[in-house]
Amino acid sequence: MASHEISKAIQDYENYITKHGIDKSVMEAYFQIPFWAKEKDNDIETALKIAPRAKEIMNQYVLNGAGGDIWQLEKFCFENKTGHEVVDKYYQILKLESPYIFESSIQYMEKNRSPSKRFYEPRKKALNVVVQDLQNLEDRKNGNKFYGLSMPSRVGKSTICIFFLSWIALKRPNSHSAMGGHSGILAKGFYKELLNLMTTPEYTFKELFDYVHPEYADKSFPTDKSADEFTITLGDPDRFATITCRGIDGTWTGAIDVSSDGYLYVDDLVRDREHSLSPRRMEGTFQEYLNKMVDRKNDGARELMVGTLWNVLDPLERIRKKYGENKEYHLRKISALNEKDESNFAYEINGFSTEYYHEMRDRLDNAEWMAKFMQQPYVREGILFGVDELRYFNGILPETDHRIVAVTDVALGGGDSLSMPIGAEYENGDVYIFDWVFNKGVKEVTLPIVVGKIIGNEIRETRFEANQGGDLYCGLVDNMLQKEGYKCSCSHRKAPNRMEKTSKIIAYSGDVKRKFLFLQPGIPTKEQKEEDAKNGIKRYYRTKEYQNAMEEFTTFVTIGDNDHDDAVDGITQLEMFIENPGGVRKAVIMPSPI
């Protein structure tokens, strides 16, 4: 607990800031408080509570004076081969935090590197959530036993986890941890990267190690290492190393120990696409993981598993399905594109732009794209509406007679999406799906959208699924239309149970493939839009909601489970509505048996 003197000083400084703002005197005074708490009162808890505020004040001081933050000031200093006292003070705070705060340790470790070569700071916006997850894992919060992370390839997931394991070794050099992957070659790469972080002057690991463990300062560093066994020992040597790197195809039993305060870090157990497509090999890999790797954990040891999801047999996906509801397990997926269809990894340095991912989406098979980039694996067998089986159009509706049709599969929360495909039905039976409301919002969000689509597209007859409040939703839409003075016949119909629903989806799938045309994939360029406008062409393009609907629609399987069926259910309901708007079976006169 902070002493009375520290508490009073903080209050005085905050009062000063309220009256006079942040100047050099208060910045320097606040800088001293965390060290005061640590050195005078031996109160590291208070020091760590105050340090973030001290850094915040330093950053604001730089912003006020230079118009840029600490990161920008440091880049300027590097470019001009000069220093700055505020930058130096900032790093002293980071050093104080490093044994306790993972992010601070990374930033301090990279302080000698040129900003153009740094790993974390240019990627901080995207990777900060991973850093916080790992901090929580170490602090035994929010998943205190297992952390699973799936991300696209080459975005830094392995490197951030190698930094993490080096931080654990820094904190507890006499604990035992292990890193494993699909092969010895991969394990060799882990070993070399760890050794590089720990021993090259480009990083400050040795400086931090001596700061945290002065008792080892005069001893050899590392205490021991083996390029043959891929082992690194930092503290007092015993039978097992501080960190051992080993492929799943190597020897684990008797050679590796994961202590109760250590970590098992498993990265990329699936070697390649060919490996992922073999159920036999995938099952063998999972069993080896359990019997070789997990078997080396002592009670209390934590686990970190990282990879790019290939399919539903991927070890990470199997663990998610088994332990996804267990609070001791925290599993995070970060996809290539966010909900706005923009890149999550547009880093300052060596990033991946939105355009890059859009091009990959257009070029790749949908299964590859969804699994490797969007982290949504599924079984290829049993796909009902394969991408190559569907019909597409270029966004321009034929200029012949047609009517606009739409139905709504209502969702009122719980992770499901309201699905409202909107199509133009022509006399030859073709249905062009030119728009699609596919929204997870609450009814206050979706109601005005649905009403707007009905009026904007001049829909005169539509139907809603009646289950789970859908009948009430239909009534709300009807009332809103009446207030707008728009005439549309709104009806609702109770949906079948799950098994019957799946049967209907399969039964109508042939008609959907034969009659329905979907907007072709791809994002239009600015030039294409300008050219259409110039020529007076009305062309429809896939919105983000339309794209999300298509991704769900083309990954629906008849073998195994589907997380959601809103998209395919909406399209099936639309075909049923077109075929039988009244929702009543036609009466058939049967001859009397007598």
Descriptive key words:
594 residues; alpha/beta; Rossmann fold; Nucleotidyltransferase, domain 5; 3 domains; eight-stranded mixed sheet; seven-stranded mixed sheet; 15 strands
Describe this structure in words.
The chain is an alpha/beta fold. The chain folds into 3 domains: 1-97, no CATH class; 119-336, Rossmann fold (3-Layer(aba) Sandwich); 387-579, Nucleotidyltransferase, domain 5 (2-Layer Sandwich). The chain is built from 21 helices and 15 strands. The strands form 2 sheets. Strands 3-4-5-2-6-7-1-8 form an 8-stranded mixed beta sheet, sandwiched between helices. Strands 9-15-12-11-10-13-14 form a 7-stranded mixed beta sheet, with helices on both faces. Helix 2 runs antiparallel to helix 3. The termini are far apart.
